[in-house]
């Protein structure tokens, strides 16, 4: 393989998402069951074949599911059993296919049917496809029921049925739009080198149609193409390691394209057993936190993690909230038992988020209008139940739990509010003290069940200072809570050196666990692009490597898979919700395989070894030899020079593709790109002296001219000059009619001058506040190698602010005012007098491509109380990165 294939530009030609046939059935794999064991979203009808028959035997359920196989049991022919999927939304006039695999036991019959209504002579009549009773075959047999829904077709439903003496079993039940579809030869669509890469081609509009196919690699290049031979398995030619996308196109006899589908797959070497077994393997992943998470999805997630050698899984599912539904209900350990056994099977050690969120019925905020009740401590009367739960849990699961973190980012008001009394007062010191007391009680309860448990608090990457409650770590580590602390849990790019300094000052040092870390790209629209997916890889490497080099433990990648049916403001996942692989999954596999059993020795002093930007490099001593991980920063591309006494060195890119390069005159010359880290296997040298990263230089700074920044101008017809009132921060609208909030000029309360602006609400609402459009002509646009920083200052007063708090947002908006990116903070609560506040954005090497306007917004967000704002100022700084020529994405 040529070096250009490894280090060359990643083309934007590939499409990130899968375009497999749309699935119109809810719960098609029967992974969700109701309390009677019947698949959720399906309706069961169990009808005696004649009158006078005795009731069904309780140990012979009409419908049951095991390993994703649905069994309909007629109890020896006494019943006709139907499982029906009502309310199936299909588009009239389109082609579809209802398909399934079926087999039977005994003399059972089966049928599958699609029903819909249409009009005949102006009256609705039922039409159907399928419906004939057939003997269930002894071996699995695939059945297709293609149909076209008429232009007036509606009220579609499907069902599966069994009759006769015996049982009928069904699997792979699907209702898809018609057109070529691709089913990989193994469940994960992850193949090992040398393994046959095969796909079943199915669901054609017509069996005689032509299907052509092509394979695109991570670089956007065509790796293979051909024409499918109808009726045969599609087997792809030998491919290199990496992420791929298979595209199939179905055409009719005239050559008209009818359908095009895409399916992502990968070729990843098997993980060496020494990596799986190594105590040095500190790689983990975080899974679906709080939304619905059926066991079948957990199994699939575990299989994906195991396949690439992940050792730790961060889970929120062993929390009290998931095992007790009401104060009088017993602890139900069934789901937690099954999860723990599942993770044991796949060699995964649990990193368990405990003590958060609190069950809503037990929360100190229960019965109030306070938001986010799970962020409060339990009521005093439920604390004993809380302690008993965590003691029993720790005793039950023992060493299958690697680490316990109590709470989640408890230094931030987003996830911790303490007691109701402290929250209402907005007393940050009291809220922090509430956590310390709560932590001690919870940690001791866990230790009572498992004396060897490793326990620590969970914090944001803002520690040791803290996010909301400051100085967080100094207060916590100077309290008696440190006596009950075995580990310290933090996130992302937290400064482990400064954390350890606080520990040392307080006389106790413990290991640091990174329970949340990895690439995360903000997006308001959740757009997936080649650029974003490459940034994810670089950001994950750029966060993981320095933290591993500093001794971080159990680094759990956020997230393994996109949370189904949840739209977040970022892209961070290695798998889509439907398990479609993204390139980062392969890149993470490469990182684990090459360094998972290694000892991070040091960061190498190679910062100056590029003709543009700078080099960040780490040496790892692994079981297979020396591995050097090289990252290029602050430039699009550069020539990188690595000193070495070897004759040749092996190079591996993030996709796992390997080549050998000669070393000439003691130097290895590489053409690298910023978004493509590289592994160099073998010995390389470094420059003398300590590692020092380049420092940026200030180019200019300017104070922006903001209209009516001091709110001295009088309101005009209810409008504040220079500012807009808003309710929804994404839609910028204020609904008509009565409101529970007001935004107005206040001539009595002010920090300076004659007036300020006041926002208030006696009842919790959505986000509301004020907005100012910043003067775009005054804001410098960063060029290659530059970035801008926004600095906001203002005076603020608050009175009885309860909830998310009063804060600000800097939003980047399209021409239609749609928000495409944002940042913000300073979410203050409670009561305080006029206080000078400041907020600073992070470095911005570029603005979202759709940005046409930047707005500054002050909110009283999902909260009650009053807040005053005065004397707003915005300063913009333009910085030049040292030896840089392009956007910095670390």
Q: Would you spell out the secondary-structure blueprint of this structure?
A:
Blueprint: H1 3-7, E1 43-48, E2 63-66, E3 69-73, E4 79-85, E5 95-106, E6 109-120, E7 123-130, E8 134-135, E9 141-148, E10 154-163, E11 166-177, E12 181-184, E13 190-191, E14 198-202, E15 210-217, E16 222-227, E17 234-235, E18 242-251, E19 257-267, H2 273-277, E20 283-286, H3 295-307, E21 312-315, H4 320-323, H5 334-345, E22 349-354, H6 383-397, E23 401-406, H7 420-425, H8 428-449, E24 455-457, H9 472-477, E25 488-491, H10 496-506, E26 512-516, E27 521-522, H11 530-549, E28 555-557, E29 570-571, H12 583-595, E30 599-604, E31 614-622, E32 625-633, E33 637-643, E34 648-653, E35 658-662, E36 667-673, E37 678-681, E38 697-703, E39 724-726, E40 741-746, E41 756-761, E42 768-773, E43 786-813, E44 819-840, E45 853-880
Task: Characterise the protein shown here.
This protein has 890 residues and is mainly beta. The protein is 15% helix and 37% strand. Helix 3 (295-307) runs parallel beside helix 5 (334-345). The two termini are 28 Å apart. Residues 1-19 and 884-890 have low confidence and may be disordered.
